[in-house]
Amino acid sequence: MISKKAKYALKALKVLAEEYGKGPVLISYIAEKEKIPKKFLEAILLDLRNNGVLQSQKGKGGGYMLRMAPADVSFSKVLRIIDGPIAPALCVSMFFYGRCDDCKDEETCSLRTVLEKWRDANLNVLDKTTLMDILRADNTSEKIITELEA
Amino acid sequence: MISKKAKYALKALKVLAEEYGKGPVLISYIAEKEKIPKKFLEAILLDLRNNGVLQSQKGKGGGYMLRMAPADVSFSKVLRIIDGPIAPALCVSMFFYGRCDDCKDEETCSLRTVLEKWRDANLNVLDKTTLMDILRADNTSEKIITELEA
DNA sequence: ATTAAATCTATATATTTAGTAGATTAGTGT
DNA sequence: ACACTAATCTACTAAATATATAGATTTAAT
């Protein structure tokens, strides 16, 4: 299961994607729009900034902005920053590789093959999905379009 | 990431799959073979028994046995018992469905579509993988075969 | 100078994870 | 019937993680 923090992060990024190219966006604006506790959101955005996804501006007229186009922010990138490894175990992680302390021998581990398959299935979805996709997938706008067509 | 408990469970089940049809297996035997803390393993096996995967016999000559063929014990079944939902969020879970308290409106949630895709990618691997697969995938026997062929 | 905004530091609480200890119950073989 | 063995149950504990909150500080614009 994805953490609440990660969901908050993705929702916040969606808002920033909507405002992409329109200048800095206030934390308070995002917090209110997505019902995220403001102080918690601060920490999340800071984390995303320190990892190169966002840029920030202090002082009056400041706020947060995407540092790259929505189509370049993949879910895997975001989830790695917020929740850590995407792989189901460290021993098959590409970005957080480490030995599993509960495994006597990595070469003979019976689970590795399955864990790798599982990891790849995840990556196949999460690498390809970007903020662009949740913009398009936003049901609110779909609904509006449907209503217009009706 | 999968919990240590879940890894223990899968490894223990692998042992039980190896001994399938040969009568009860001792907790101590499994614990030692897979280097799992015995008391912790007890709880895990009990949990699997209470959920219909294992059957147990008390007293002398007792132990644990698979209640079904290795090919019928899927990873998804095991992981649901030990770690809970496989889906990345409750709102897209098939076995543990629940509203996400951080979501104002399920219909307009921008993440749902992606979460569903992600869930399906997971299930596609985990439903199809069974204990039978980790028996075959066990590198120890592969190594032996390779050595024999060399 | 005043104001508005992000940033930093510290703290708090609840939940989950991983594990231990000891008593109890139920079967087996003698 | 009895001793033994193995699962089962109950109750803890420690450490890590998740989910926040409070308040002071820094930075920039007007």
Portion in strands of chain A: 5-15%
CATH class of the largest domain in chain A: Mainly Alpha
Write the CATH homologous superfamily of the largest domain in chain A: Winged helix-like DNA-binding domain superfamily/Winged helix DNA-binding domain
Helix content of chain A: 40-55%
Largest β sheet strand count, sense and barrel closure of chain A: 2 strands, antiparallel
Any guess at the CATH architecture of the largest domain in chain A?
Orthogonal Bundle
- Number of DSSP-assigned strands of chain A: 2
Strand and helix order of chain A: HHHEEHHHH
- Major β-sheet strand ordering of chain A: 1-2
Largest interface: A-B, 45 and 45 residues
Tell me the domain tally of chain A.
Answer: 2
- Global shape of chain A: elongated
CATH topology of the largest domain in chain A: Arc Repressor Mutant, subunit A
